[in-house]
C-alpha cells in the first residue's frame, strides 16, 4: 500500500470550503447515499448542482432536499449507467441544457449484485461502475472547465482486493459477486490514475482525483447484495458503519477543495480506512501500474465504442 500525490490533508471537514457560487457540479447517483449527501454539502456552499439519477421520482425528491440547502440552482438529469443509449441521450441533453462543468463527480455504483448483464451485455458491476462512467466521462469531456475542471471518481477500500481479469473481464467463467465488485472498484481507481497521467502529460489544468467513502451506511448494502450478504450488512452497518454524511466528505474534498491534488486519493484514514479522519488514503500498488492502466483504457474504449482523448 502507498499514498499518491499526497496533499497533507488530515481530518478534513467541509467547513474549509470556500463559497462555491457560480460553480456547477454534476453528480451521478446523486439521489441517495454518498451522492446525495455530497450534493447537500456542496449546495450549502451555494454551488449549482445537477443530479444524474436513473429513477426520476427519487431524483425529484433529492432535488427538493438539495434546494433547501443553499442558493444555487438544482437540476435533474435522467441517466442509466447500465445502458449506453441512456448515457448518450443524457450527455446530449446535458450538453444542450447546461453550462461549463466545474466538477464531474462519478459517484453512482452498485455492489455485489447477483450475476446480471447491462443492456449492452456487459457484466453488470463492471458495466455500471466503470464502463458506464468511462463512456459518460468521454461524452462530457468537452463541457469541463479547462481552467478549473475536475473529474472525481469514487472508488472503494474494496479495490485493495481486486484484480483486472483481462482474460475474462465479464467473469463469464465462475462469476462471484464480490470478485466482480472488487474488480470494478479497482478499475475505477486505475482509471482515475491513468486520467491524471494523461492530463499531466498534456499540460492540462483539469484534475483527476479519486476518493472513497470508507465503510458508510448507505442503500448500497441492501439494494445490491443477495439476502445473505444483506442480512450480514444490517448487523455490521449498525455496529461499524459511519453515516453517509461523513462518508461524503472525501467526495466533497476531491470535488471542491482548492488544495486537492490531481492524482490524489482521499478517504477516511482510521483503522483499515473504514472510518476516521479524512485525508490521503492508502492505494494498492496494483492500481498504479501504467501498463495495466493503458490496457484497461484501450479495452474500455473498444467496449463502449468511444475514445476519451484529453488533449
Structural summary, described in words:
Mean pLDDT is 91; it is low at 232-240. The protein is an alpha/beta fold and 311 residues long. The chain has a single domain (14-303), classed as Rossmann fold, CATH 3.40.50. It has an 8-stranded mixed β-sheet, sandwiched between helices. The chain contains 9 helices and 8 strands. α1 links the parallel β1 and β2 (48-53). It has helices spanning 33-44, 56-67, 84-97, 124-140, 177-202, 220-223, 227-240, 244-256, 290-304, and strands at 24-28, 48-53, 74-78, 103-106, 150-154, 207-211, 265-268, 278-280. α3 runs parallel beside α4 and α4 crosses α9 (290-304). 41% of the residues lie in helices and 12% in strands.
Descriptive keywords:
alpha/beta; 9 helices
Topology summary:
Elements: E1 24-28, H1 33-44, E2 48-53, H2 56-67, E3 74-78, H3 84-97, E4 103-106, H4 124-140, E5 150-154, H5 177-202, E6 207-211, H6 220-223, H7 227-240, H8 244-256, E7 265-268, E8 278-280, H9 290-304
Parallel strand pairs: 1-2, 1-4, 2-3, 4-5, 5-6, 6-7
Antiparallel strand pairs: 7-8
